[in-house]
Amino acid sequence: MDKLQWISNKIVSRTELVRRVNGWKATGKTIVFTNGCFDILHHGHLDLLARAAGKGNILVLGLNTDASVKRLKGPARPVTGEQDRAFQVASLLAVDAVCLFDEDTPAALIEAIGPDVLVKGGDYTIDKIVGADYVLNHGGRVEVIPFVDGYSTTSIIERIRTL
């Protein structure tokens, strides 16, 4: 399989993701889940994904669709379309599967796959992480990865506007 096909095979529907996760679980793999918009991929995103991948064997990334990002971040976002964002994060060795979700939160996706570990960045606290209760109530754990100061998509956009 060539590398482009390898990347494309990581971008899956919710139904296919559930099938893959069930297979990974059957072989004893620890499933880690994180989510976000990942608009204008930057150092903070990459740090989060690398650290999240280290919390288990398989890293699943839930990616907000363009419509979902617009509802959450406003009409000027995302800067990068969902297919390009999915391709970018699927290109990373740390990421094993990418699944787009159109809801405002990943709650339904989290419940569909039942990850062993739920990870979010340090701008969250466990009580504010969507799906934390579900994961904890099903024997999993929730991890908050320290935020990398100075890196955010919003700050990058603002810096570009001032150039």
Q: In words, what does this structure look like?
A:
The protein is of the alpha/beta class and 163 residues long. The chain has helices at 3-8, 14-26, 43-53, 66-73, 82-90, 107-113, 132-137, 153-161, and strands at 31-36, 58-64, 97-101, 117-121, 141-145. The protein has one domain (3-161): HUPs (Rossmann fold). It has eight helices and five strands. Strand 4, helix 7 and strand 5 (141-145) form a beta-alpha-beta unit. The longest helix has 13 residues, at 14-26. The N and C termini lie far apart (42 Å). The model has no long low-confidence stretch (mean pLDDT 94).
What is the annotated CATH architecture? 3-Layer(aba) Sandwich
Q: How much strand content do the residues show? A: 15-25%
Which overall shape is indicated by the principal axes computed on the Cα atoms?
A: globular
Look up the CATH topology.
Rossmann fold
CATH class annotation: Alpha Beta
Number of separate domains: 1
Main sheet: which strands, in order across?
A: 3-2-1-4-5
Structure annotation, total helices: 8
What string gives the helices and strands in order? HHEHEHHEHEHEH
Number of strands: 5
